[in-house]
Design brief:
This protein has helices at 3-6, 13-27, 34-38, 44-49, 55-68, 73-97, 101-108, 111-144, 148-163, 170-195, 199-207, 214-227, 230-241, 249-286, 296-307, 309-342, 348-365, 369-383, 385-395, 398-401, 408-433. By secondary structure, the protein is mainly alpha-helical. It has one domain (41-433): Amino acid/polyamine transporter I (Up-down Bundle), CATH 1.20.1740.10. The longest helix is centred in the middle third of the chain and has 38 residues, at 249-286.
Length: 436
């Protein structure tokens, strides 16, 4: 199988310089300072991390903060710790085996199960792309006043342009996505400065678990689904599988340690941004009695009388940056899953076109966009076990992972995460079918 089939990007001279610098660091021959030695390894987790701050996060965090104040802040903290663990395992699988998670599933599981897993993965991809596409379209509509239908078309065109960077290698795409992360992060840093939250309350609710009835559990599941995203787990293993290839056991261990730094920094930034979203909603809407904020549009228009016009547009720009970048990443993940499960590949622009149709349909019929975003994140939560359980299975196998096989504690923690996710999903199914 060719490198192009395995990986969503191609290798060019710029990427080659990155690989050479990385191997010099791993071999101990690099003369650069610590920060310069770290740079060649930074990137894959930042691409994966944009999935952790996409428009679905805006929807769930705004509703959670408006309705329940800071009560669900601990869910974001827990979800991002889970994300760090799972994304580390995904990166490790690609590094150790040279194959991504979907490819391992295709090689190891029976054909009937592969078709089921691919079907779930495609449902996840559709839900993901729907949320991200709608978020970007909302951003254009709110900030520039572009009608939603035209905003959707503009979103599609810009996504095509971002995906076009793949032909120039992995570095340009990593740089653009990281830039979008920076825009979202800076926007919420400004928002937090404007709302001036009570930091004692923030610290308390960040570590003390609480629920206030079934609706809070539903939103918690949405936050979990929006934070720990199955398509990002599949994608991360593909981003690392042939980025920097080494066989020496010591160099593999060293490479994985650098990838852990990449994961911690990227996911740590995503965690802070998610927390800032909920804190902003709690401090602005919940504290002023606007607990019925049910959509991103309402949040946008309510910000002006509460915090001023600047905060309104900062919020809109962050939503736009989030939607455009995560839409591109979602398309990449869909391609990885299709190629991995079925050994088939279609052009990213075709996947993008297929995604546009249900998204434009949702816009055309006038469905509540924010509610659609929240429900899409719950769908992602149901898709998580189909990614998490195989990930734990493969990373716990010595014949696949070699020197990077999971330690016993890692497997125990990851298994507890899987049990937690399954338990939450079964509870939600019970709530849905019992009419609660």
């Amino acid at each position: 199988m060719s490198k192009q089939e395995n990986h969503p990007t191609e290798i060019n001279s710029g990427d080659s310089k990155t690989v050479i610098s990385a191997k010099e660091v791993l071999s101990g021959t690099s003369k650069k300072n610590w920060f310069a030695r770290l740079l060649p390894f930074m990137g894959p987790a930042f691409i994966a991390s944009i999935a952790y701050m996409d428009p679905g996060n805006f929807a769930t965090n705004i509703q959670g903060g408006a309705q329940f104040g800071l009560e669900l802040l601990w869910v974001i903290v827990a979800s991002n710790l889970i994300a760090m663990l799972l994304q580390s395992l995904s990166a490790k699988l690609g590094i150790a085996s040279g194959k991504n998670l979907a490819e391992h599933c295709r090689d190891q599981y029976p054909k009937w199960l592969i078709w089921i897993m691919w079907g779930v993965a495609e449902l996840v991809a559709i839900s993901t792309d729907l949320a991200e596409f709608l978020g970007a379209a909302l951003g254009f509509y709110l900030v520039f006043g572009v009608p939603l239908l035209w905003a959707g078309i503009i979103t599609a065109l810009i996504t095509f342009m971002i995906l076009g960077l793949e032909r120039y290698g992995f570095r340009p795409l990593e740089a653009v996505i990281t830039g979008f992360v920076g825009v979202v992060g800076l926007s919420y840093l400004i928002e937090i400065f404007l709302v001036k939250p009570n930091w004692n309350d923030v610290a308390f609710h960040a570590v003390v678990p609480q629920f206030s009835g079934p609706e809070s559990v539903l939103l918690a599941a949405g936050i979990l689904g929006a934070t720990v995203m199955p398509h990002a787990i599949y994608l991360h293993s593909a981003l690392t599988q042939d980025r920097i290839v080494v066989k020496n056991p010591k160099m593999l261990q060293k490479l994985f340690r650098y990838e852990i730094i990449d994961v911690v920094v990227a996911m740590g930034a995503a965690s802070l941004i998610n927390m800032a979203m909920l804190i902003m909603a709690a401090s602005t809407f919940h504290s002023s009695g606007h607990t019925n904020i049910g959509s991103i549009e309402e949040a946008f228009h309510t910000l002006e009388p509460l915090l001023g016009r600047a905060s309104q547009y900062i919020f809109g720009i962050s939503l736009l940056a989030s939607g455009l970048s995560s839409s591109s990443v979602g398309t990449m993940a869909g391609q990885v899953m299709m190629q991995g499960f079925l050994h088939k590949q279609i052009a990213p622009w075709i996947r993008r076109l297929v995604t546009i149709l249900p998204s434009l349909l949702v816009i055309a019929v006038g469905v509540n966009l924010t509610r659609t975003l929240v429900v899409s994140q719950v769908v992602l939560s149901f898709g998580l076990p189909f990614a998490v359980i195989p990930l734990i299975h493969f990373t716990n196998r010595k014949d696949i992972m070699g020197e990077l096989v999971n330690k016993r504690l890692t497997t125990v923690l990851a298994s507890l995460v899987a049990v937690l996710i399954l338990s939450l999903n079964f509870f939600l199914i019970y709530q849905i079918f019992s009419g609660s």
